[in-house]
Design goal:
This protein is mainly beta and about 270 residues long. The chain has one domain. The chain is about 10% helix and about 45% strand. The chain is built from five helices and nine strands. The strands form three sheets. Strands 1, 7, 8 and 9 form a four-stranded antiparallel sheet that branches. Strand 5 and strand 6 form a beta hairpin. The longest helix has 8 residues. The C terminus is likely disordered.
């Protein structure tokens, strides 16, 4: 990379086409007492379970639908449906080992964000392998992106199903593949879990922005395909001094005690 970047020398202003976040929000959802759906084998095991433990839960897919709000221009509703994969360890009696079964949870929510107004239709050429260039058109809707971490398992229990429980519908094929078959909807007993979910939702539009340019980006290191031995890797790790010698209180005195003034310290 040239010296102009290191010295912060401005070369020119360039126009780039990139995504700009118009609005975003973060949320903390408590998904309470939601049914876990299994295939027939898993549901039969849950129905006759003497014990059940939820081992893990991960986000498998998020289906997103963005629609403009008619009575509030520039705002959009983002309908999000999260699909979680649950791994449950179920024992049907006390004499045989517990078996693991994969289940599915669906959770829907709606977020309203400001995405700005745009009436421009975008057409771009797209080079397709082994084919001629084609023109691809885009709508003026902003793009909704969702970031989330795997949920926290707060509670789980097996109980009877009441008539008010909603059933799962329109599950993507990629999600159904995790349970190895069609979901068993009809049941008298089912596994219910409570999850804690952290997420960030953003509305993004492609815009042209003028930015300062310094130079082209060049890698600063050479490619290396050598693999060090475990001992060589260990020798490069810094010695954990703080683990052996914990830091003392930062209270301005020489005694290692939790107090605000030296008059409260007691020497041993």
């Amino acid at each position: 990379m040239s010296d102009s970047i290191n010295q912060g020398v401005f070369n020119e202003a360039v126009c780039i086409d990139t995504g700009r976040v118009y609005d975003s929000c973060m949320d903390r959802d408590c998904i309470e007492n939601t049914r876990v759906y299994f295939n027939e084998e898993g549901q039969n095991a849950v129905a006759s379970a003497v014990s059940c433990r939820v081992k893990s839960c991960e986000v498998n897919d998020v289906v997103i639908d963005v629609e403009p709000i008619a009575f509030k221009r520039g705002y959009y509703s983002c309908d999000l449906t999260f699909y979680f994969t649950i791994v449950a360890e179920v024992a049907t009696d006390t004499t045989t080992p517990a078996q693991e079964y994969d289940g599915i949870i669906a959770y829907s929510k709606r977020v309203i964000l400001c995405g700005g107004e745009g009436n421009v239709k975008t057409f771009t050429s797209n080079v397709v392998a082994m084919a001629d260039d084609v023109t691809v058109s885009g709508t003026n809707l902003p793009k909704c992106t969702v970031q989330c971490v795997d949920p926290v398992i707060l509670d789980s229990k097996i109980c009877n199903i009441c008539n008010c429980v909603e059933t799962i519908t329109n599950v993507p094929e990629s999600v159904l593949e995790n349970v190895g078959g069609e979901l068993q909807i009809e049941a008298e007993r089912a596994l219910f879990v409570t999850l804690g979910l952290f997420s960030i939702v953003q509305l993004v539009r492609n815009v042209q922005i003028l930015v300062p340019s310094y130079d082209f980006c060049m890698p600063q290191k050479d490619c290396d395909d050598t693999i060090a031995s475990p001992c060589e890797m260990f020798q490069k790790i810094s010695f954990p001094v703080d683990e052996f010698f914990p830091k003392t209180c930062d209270n301005g005195d020489d005694n290692n005690c939790n107090c605000n003034t030296t008059s409260n310290c007691q020497n041993s």
